[in-house]
Design goal:
The structure holds three protein chains of three kinds. Chain A folds into two domains: about 230 residues, Aminopeptidase, CATH 3.40.630.10; about 80 residues, Elongation Factor Tu (Ef-tu), domain 3 (Beta Barrel). Chain A is about 25% helix and about 25% strand. The two termini of chain A are about 30 Å apart. By secondary structure, chain A is an alpha+beta fold. By secondary structure, chain B is α+β, with helices and mostly antiparallel strands. Chain B has two domains: about 240 residues, Aminopeptidase, CATH 3.40.630; about 90 residues, Beta Barrel (Elongation Factor Tu (Ef-tu), domain 3), CATH 2.40.30. Chain B is about 25% helix and about 25% strand. Chain B contains eight helices and 16 strands. The radius of gyration of chain B is 21 Å and the shape is globular. Chain C is an alpha+beta fold. In chain C, helix 7 packs across helix 9. In chain C, strand 4 and strand 5 form a beta hairpin. Chain C is globular and about 70 Å long. The chains are: A alpha+beta, B alpha+beta, C alpha+beta. Chains in contact: A-B, A-C, B-C. Chains B and C meet through strand 4, strand 5 and helix 5 of B and strand 15 of C.
C-alpha cells in the first residue's frame, strides 16, 4: 500500500488534465479486472464482471492545481485556481508542471496582512529572467500542482493529493485482493471531481448502477483547537452520514455499518459541514441511485502535506472487500 | 453596420422572454437549414443534414440577454423590478429601458444631485431601491400600460463605433447567434445542429435540454466574452483584448474545454492565418457547462468574440474579431469529417 | 379523509430531508384511497397515479409537493450528557433557544435546546444572536445510557403540533411543504368528482430542502408532459416589506417568470377566472426555490407551472397558513387538469 500511495501521490494529474495519472492507475489495476475503458470525459472504468447487481465504486483521479493565465514582462506567471487552492496553503510552496518544470508560488510582498492576500495578487516564479524565456517553457492553460514529495511518520503517510489518490489506492488494492463477488463491480476513477463532481455525473449515467459508493477523504476534528468534528485519524474508515451534496442513503449506510461490525472493522460516523464527493452526483443520476461514501480521515486537506493513517487505509480495504464479497440484499 | 446584426442586437429577448429574437432567427434559419424546430424549453434548433451523415455536431449560441422583470407596481405608478441575469445595479442608474411587447419607454431615475447630501453620492445603490418611471401617476394608470411579469430590455441603438467597431446591447450573445447563421450557409459531411438556446444567463437552463434531445458527439459554443482591456485594470486581469481575434477558452467556471478540440482550434487558426488569443480568465460560465455533462458526456469547447462592458446597456466589439471568429469556427468545422 | 386532519397528522410525523420513510408511508396509505396505483421509490418519493377517461395522446401531468422538513441532526454525543447538532436545511438559529425537540435515535427522546437565563448573561452576551455551534440539546439522560440510545447522525425534529388560531388560520411546523401535500389530497378529492382526460401523477417528493433532490430523480422517472409544482410563498408579516409578501385571504399565488411556461401559466389563470377562484401573481426573475426549478429542466425540458400558498413565518415552528387557501388551490388544479382536452399541446407552443 505504501509504495502504491507514493507512486500515485507523486503522479501528475490536475483536474482536466488526468492523462498521466490515468495511465498510472491503468498499469496498476489492469491485471486484476476483466475490462478497462475510458469514456468521453476521460473517466477510467475498470470492470470486474459478475452476474448480480451492479456496484459502482468511485474515487477521483484529479488533484487541485494552478493554471497559467498570464505571463508578465519579467517572466513571472499569474495564475488562477483549478479546484480548491487556498491562499494560506500556497504561499511560498513548491509546484511542478507536467514536464517537471519547478516553480515557487508567492505573493506581492508590499501586502502586509495575510488576510489581504488574494490569488490574483500571487504569482509563480520559475526562475526565468524575462517573458521570452518563460514563453519558451510554459503557455497559457498549463497547470502546475503541489510538489512536496512523499513521507512517512509513525505509521502515517504525508503527501500532496492524498485527496483523492488515497481513494484510488483503496480501489486498486480492493481490486487486487477481491477473490470473488456475486456482483458486477465497476471501479471508476473519475475526472474533474475538484471542479464540481463532473466526471461522476456522466460515468454514473452510463453505468446506471444499483448502488454507488464513493471513496474520498474527509476532514478530522483531532488537531489542537480544531473545528468541532467527531472524526479522528486512526479510528477507522468513516461512514458518511451527510455532507453538502448528499444525505447518505440509509440502506447504504446500514450496509456499511453492518459489514464493518460483522468483520470486526473499526469505523466512525461522519458529518462533513463543508465539502462534497462524487456520491453527490451519483445519487441524483437518472431515477436516483442509493449511494454512500467511505471516507478516509485526513488532516490538512488541500495542502501539500495531507496526512492519513496506514491503519485506516488497511481497514478501508477490508471494509470494501466485505461489502463486495457478500450479496447486497436491498 | 451589418443590417442583420443590427436587428439581432436590437431585438428583445430577456431570459424567459425570447419570443422576438427567436422569431427573427427562425425566419433566417428556415432559408438556410433543412429543418427548424422549437423544443419544449423554447430552444430553436436548426438542423442541416450532412453529405456523409453519421456524426452529429452541435453548434451553440444563446439567444437570451440580461434585463429586468417588473415584479411590483407602487401606488405612485412607478415600477419595482428584479434583474434577470447578473446586472450590477450601478449601471442601471439614469438609463432607459423598453418594456413589454409594445416596448413602452421606461426610465430609471435617481433623486437629483441638488437634493442629495455629499455622502449619499458615495453610496452604492441596491436594486431594491431603484424604480422605473413610465410617466404614470398611479397604480391604476400604470396597469393600463404594463403588467406584472413584463420584461424590460435596455434601450440601446446598435451603431458602428470608432474604428471598425460596433456598439450595441446584447453582443453577448447575439454575435454568437449571427455566427451560427453564417455557418448554416454551408453544408458539411456531418449532421449539423445549430442551437439557439434560451435562459443561459439565469443559470444555463436551456442548453441541457437541447443536448439531451440531440445527443451530439461534439459541441462548439460560440459566445461573447469579457474583455476588460480598459484603464484601471491590471494587465493580468484583462481576460481578453479587443482586436486580437477570437478568444479560445481553456477552462472557465462551468467547464474545462476538451483538449483535442482546443488544440485543433489553435492549429486551424495558425494554418488559416486567423489571429487568436487564449482567454486569460477562468471566470464566467456558458452553455458548455450543461452540455458537457449531459448523458454519457459530450466533448465541448468554447470560442468567443471579445466584448467590452457585457451585462450593461452598451457593449463594444471589434468587427474584425467578429469575422475572424466566424472564419475560425467555419475552418474548424470544415476540418471535421 | 378530512384535509385539515390529514395536515394535522402529517405535521406530527418525522421526516427531515433524507429521513422521510415514516411520513412517506403515511402519505402512501392516504393516496391509496383515491389513486389507481401507488408506488414508492428507493428514496421514498411517493407516486400516486390517477386516470379517468383514457384518450390516446392525452397528457401525462406530474404534480409535486415536498414532504421533507427542515430539522437538526446529532453531530456529537458529549460525555456530559448533552448533544451537539447541525442543521438540516435552512434553519434560522434564532428560533432555537428554548425550543422543544424530539431526538430520533433507537428510541424517540424528548429534548430541549436550553437557553441561559437572562440573570446569568453579561450585557454583551445578551446583544448577540446565539450561534448553533454553541448550543446543546438536553435530553435529561447521561453518559453510557445516552450513548446506547443516540448516535452521530440521528435526526432531530422540532416539536410543534398543529393549532388553530382565529377562524381558518392554522399554525405549526413544516407546513412548508406539508400544506402542499394537503393540496395534493384536496386535488385528488376534487378530481374524483370531475371528468378528465389525463394521466395524473401525484408525487410527494423528498429532500426538497436540500436542493429539490427528490424532484430531480422523480421527474426523470415520470417523464411528464406537464409539471405542476406546489409549494409555499411568503404571507404578509408585520416586519417584512409589503412588496415581497402576499395577503393571506386572496387565494393561491400563481408564479410568472422564466421558470414557468408562459402559455401554460396563462391557461392556469384563465381556469381561475372561469371558475371565480381568486388568485395573486408572484413574479420570479430566475429559477425558483421550489421543485419547479428541477422539473422544468429534466431530460428535454418540461413545461411547468408553480402554485403556492401564502405562509407566514417560514422555517419557524409557528408557520401559519389559511386552510381555505389549501382548498381553493386544490379546486384550481383539479379544474385545470379537467380542462386539458384535445389540443392541449397547443398551449405549449412558443
Amino acid at each position: 500500500m505504501k509504495e502504491l500511495l507514493k507512486k500515485l501521490t507523486l503522479c501528475y494529474g490536475p483536474a482536466g488534465n488526468e492523462e498521466v495519472i490515468r495511465d498510472c492507475i491503468k498499469e496498476e489495476i489492469k491485471d486484476f479486472v476483466d475490462e478497462i475503458k475510458v469514456d468521453v470525459l476521460g473517466n477510467l472504468i475498470a470492470i470486474k464482471r459478475g452476474g448480480g447487481k451492479k456496484v459502482m465504486l468511485a474515487a477521483h483521479m484529479d488533484q487541485i492545481g494552478f493554471m497559467v493565465t498570464h505571463i508578465d514582462e519579467n517572466g513571472f506567471i499569474r495564475f488562477s485556481r483549478v479546484g480548491g487552492i487556498f491562499v494560506q496553503n500556497s504561499i511560498n510552496s513548491k509546484v511542478v508542471f507536467k514536464d517537471g518544470l519547478v516553480g515557487v508560488v508567492s505573493y506581492e510582498s508590499e501586502i502586509e496582512e495575510i488576510k489581504d492576500i488574494k490569488l490574483d495578487k500571487m504569482y509563480i516564479d520559475i526562475g526565468t529572467k524575462n517573458r521570452e524565456e518563460t514563453q519558451k517553457l510554459v503557455t497559457i492553460g498549463d497547470v502546475a500542482v503541489y510538489s512536496n514529495g512523499f513521507a512517512e511518520s509513525n505509521g502515517r503517510y504525508i503527501a500532496q493529493a492524498m485527496d483523492d489518490r488515497a481513494g484510488c489506492a483503496l480501489l486498486i488494492e480492493t481490486a487486487k485482493r477481491l477473490k470473488s463477488s456475486p456482483h458486477e463491480v465497476y471501479f471508476v476513477f473519475t475526472v474533474q471531481e475538484e471542479l464540481g463532481v463532473r466526471g461522476a455525473k456522466t460515468s454514473a449515467y452510463a453505468l446506471d448502477p444499483h448502488i454507488g459508493i464513493a471513496v474520498d477523504v474527509t476532514l478530522t476534528g483531532d488537531t489542537p483547537k480544531s473545528k468541532l468534528m467527531a472524526v479522528k485519524m486512526g479510528s477507522g474508515p468513516a461512514i458518511k452520514v451527510k455532507d453538502v451534496l448528499i444525505m447518505a442513503h440509509p440502506k447504504v449506510k446500514e450496509l456499511m455499518i453492518t459489514r464493518a461490525r460483522d468483520a470486526g472493522i473499526p469505523y466512525q460516523m461522519e458529518i462533513l459541514e463543508a465539502g462534497g464527493t462524487d456520491a453527490g452526483a451519483i445519487h441524483l443520476t437518472r431515477k436516483g441511485i442509493p449511494s454512500g461514501v467511505l471516507s478516509i480521515p485526513t488532516r490538512y486537506v488541500h495542502s501539500d502535506c495531507e496526512m492519513i493513517d496506514s491503519g485506516d487505509m488497511e481497514n478501508g480495504v477490508k471494509l470494501l472487500l466485505k461489502i463486495l464479497e457478500e450479496e447486497i440484499e436491498f | 453596420m451589418d443590417e442583420l446584426l443590427k436587428r439581432l442586437t436590437e431585438a428583445h429577448g430577456v431570459s424567459g422572454d425570447e419570443g422576438e429574437i427567436r422569431e427573427i432567427l427562425k425566419k433566417e434559419a428556415v432559408n438556410l437549414a433543412d429543418e427548424v424546430s422549437i423544443d419544449r424549453m423554447g430552444n430553436l434548433v436548426a438542423f442541416k443534414k450532412g453529405t456523409k451523415g453519421g456524426k452529429k455536431i452541435m453548434l451553440c449560441a444563446h439567444m437570451d440577454e440580461v434585463g429586468l422583470i417588473i415584479h411590483n407596481i407602487a401606488d405612485n405608478g412607478t415600477l419595482k423590478f428584479s434583474t434577470v441575469g447578473s446586472i450590477d445595479p450601478r449601471v442601471l442608474i439614469s438609463k432607459k429601458v423598453k418594456i413589454g411587447k409594445k416596448k413602452h419607454h421606461g426610465i430609471l431615475g435617481l433623486k437629483a444631485i441638488h437634493l442629495q447630501e455629499p455622502e449619499e453620492r458615495k453610496t452604492v445603490v441596491k436594486t431594491k431601491q431603484l424604480y422605473i418611471d413610465i410617466g404614470a401617476k398611479s397604480k391604476d394608470e400604470a396597469l393600463k400600460i404594463v403588467n406584472l411579469g413584463d420584461y424590460a430590455a435596455f434601450d440601446t441603438d446598435s451603431l458602428p463605433f470608432g474604428q471598425g467597431r460596433i456598439k450595441a446591447k446584447a453582443l453577448d450573445d447575439r454575435l454568437g447567434c449571427s455566427i451560427l447563421l453564417d455557418l448554416l450557409k454551408n453544408r458539411y459531411p456531418f449532421d449539423l445542429y445549430a442551437c439557439f438556446t434560451v435562459q443561459e444567463e439565469i443559470g444555463i437552463r436551456g442548453a441541457g435540454a437541447a443536448a439531451f434531445g440531440i445527443k451530439p458527439s461534439m459541441a462548439l459554443i460560440v459566445e461573447g466574452t469579457t474583455c476588460s482591456d480598459v484603464p484601471g485594470v491590471d494587465e493580468h486581469m484583462r481576460s481578453t483584448r479587443l482586436g486580437k481575434g477570437p478568444a479560445i477558452t481553456v477552462m472557465d467556471a462551468t467547464s474545462y474545454s476538451n483538449k483535442f478540440m482546443v488544440n485543433k482550434l489553435i492549429e486551424t487558426a495558425i494554418k488559416e492565418n486567423i489571429p487568436y488569443q487564449m482567454k486569460e480568465s477562468v471566470t464566467g460560465g456558458n452553455d458548455a457547462g450543461a452540455i458537457h455533462v449531459s448523458g454519457e458526456g459530450i466533448k465541448t469547447a468554447v470560442v468567443s468574440v471579445p466584448c467590452r462592458y457585457i451585462h450593461s446597456p452598451v457593449s463594444v466589439a471589434d468587427m474584425n474579431d467578429y469575422y475572424s471568429t466566424s472564419r475560425l469556427v467555419e475552418a474548424f468545422l470544415k476540418g471535421c469529417e | 379523509m378530512d384535509t385539515k386532519d390529514f395536515l394535522s397528522e402529517l405535521v406530527d410525523l418525522p421526516g427531515i430531508s433524507g429521513y422521510e420513510e415514516t411520513i412517506s408511508l403515511k402519505v402512501s396509505h392516504v393516496f391509496e384511497r383515491y389513486c389507481d396505483e401507488v408506488r414508492t421509490d428507493a428514496f421514498y418519493n411517493v407516486y400516486g397515479k390517477m386516470t379517468d377517461k383514457i384518450v390516446e395522446g392525452m397528457p401525462k401531468v406530474m404534480l409535486a409537493a415536498h414532504i421533507d422538513e427542515i430539522g437538526l441532526m446529532v453531530k456529537e454525543v458529549c460525555e456530559d450528557g448533552f448533544l451537539r447538532f447541525v442543521s438540516v436545511g435552512g434553519v434560522d438559529q434564532r428560533i432555537l433557544p428554548g425550543l422543544e425537540v424530539v431526538v430520533r435515535g433507537k428510541e424517540d427522546l424528548a429534548g430541549i435546546i436550553g437557553a441561559k437565563p437572562p440573570h446569568l448573561q453579561t450585557a454583551d452576551e445578551a446583544k448577540k444572536a446565539l450561534e448553533m455551534k454553541d448550543m446543546a440539546i438536553d435530553v435529561g439522560i447521561c453518559g453510557e445510557k445516552l450513548k446506547s440510545l443516540i448516535n452521530v447522525g440521528d435526526p432531530i425534529t422540532f416539536k410543534s403540533p398543529l393549532i388553530t388560531l382565529n377562524g381558518s388560520m392554522i399554525s405549526g411546523k413544516s407546513l412548508d411543504d406539508r400544506a402542499g401535500a394537503a393540496i395534493l389530497l384536496e386535488t385528488m378529492k376534487q378530481l374524483d368528482e370531475l371528468r378528465f382526460e389525463a394521466e395524473v401523477y401525484f408525487v410527494a417528493t423528498v429532500q426538497e430542502e436540500l436542493g429539490t433532490r427528490g424532484a430531480i430523480i422523480s421527474t426523470f422517472r415520470v417523464m411528464p408532459d406537464i409539471g405542476i409544482a406546489i409549494d409555499v410563498t411568503h404571507g404578509d408579516m408585520p416586519d417584512a416589506p409589503k412588496e415581497e409578501t402576499f395577503a393571506m385571504d386572496k387565494g393561491p399565488v400563481i408564479a410568472v417568470g422564466p421558470n414557468m411556461h408562459p402559455g401554460l401559466t396563462k391557461k392556469l389563470m384563465d381556469t381561475a377566472k372561469e371558475y371565480g377562484i381568486e388568485y395573486l401573481v408572484e413574479v420570479e426573475a430566475g429559477p425558483t426555490g421550489t421543485d419547479a426549478r428541477s422539473i422544468q429542466i429534466s431530460r428535454s425540458g418540461v413545461p411547468t407551472v408553480l402554485i403556492q400558498i401564502p405562509l407566514k413565518y417560514m422555517h419557524t415552528t409557528v408557520e401559519t397558513i389559511n386552510i381555505e387557501t389549501v382548498k381553493k388551490a386544490g379546486m384550481l388544479i383539479a379544474r385545470f387538469i379537467s380542462s386539458m382536452k384535445e389540443g392541449w399541446r397547443e398551449w405549449m407552443n412558443y
